[in-house]
Design a protein that fits this description.
single chain; mainly beta; five-stranded antiparallel beta sheet
Length: 124
C-alpha cells in the first residue's frame, strides 16, 4: 500500500477492561454502524470464587438495552471458568452492543476482560 487517502477503520473495542472483578460489570457500548456482525471475545484469567455469567445486550439508541436473542448469536455464553476464553459471534441487526457479566457470590472474584471485534464492514 502506498500513502494517500487511506483511512484506517477501527474495528476492535474494549468492552470490559481487564481487571479483577467482584461485582456485576456493564461493559462499554460498542457502535456497530457500518458493520454487519461482531465477535465477542472474553479473555479469562483466574476465577477464585463466585459465579461470573456473561451475556450480550443490544439496542438502537445506546440506552434501552435488551438481551440478545439466542438466534442472533453464533455460540452461547457460559459461566466463566479459569483460563477458558470464550468467542461468541453476533449477527443481529442493532446498532449498539455491550457485554454484561453478572457476578454473584464473589469475595475475591475473578480476573477477565472482554472485547468486541466488528466484522463484515459495509465499505472497505
Amino acid at each position: 500500500m502506498s500513502g494517500g487517502n487511506m483511512k484506517k477503520r477501527e474495528n476492535g473495542a474494549t468492552a470490559i477492561a481487564p481487571a479483577a472483578k467482584t461485582s456485576t460489570s456493564n461493559g462499554s457500548s460498542v457502535d456497530l454502524a457500518g458493520y454487519q456482525s461482531a465477535l465477542v471475545v472474553l479473555v479469562v484469567g483466574t476465577i477464585t470464587d463466585g459465579t461470573h455469567t456473561p451475556k450480550l445486550q443490544e439496542c438502537d439508541d445506546n440506552s434501552s438495552w435488551a438481551d440478545v436473542a439466542a438466534g442472533d448469536l453464533e455460540g452461547s455464553f457460559v459461566a466463566l471458568t479459569s483460563s477458558t476464553n470464550q468467542y461468541i459471534g453476533y449477527k443481529g441487526h442493532r446498532r449498539y452492543v455491550r457485554v454484561v457479566v453478572t457476578v454473584s457470590g464473589a469475595t475475591t472474584g475473578g480476573v477477565y476482560g472482554a472485547a468486541v471485534i466488528k466484522g463484515q464492514a459495509q465499505q472497505a
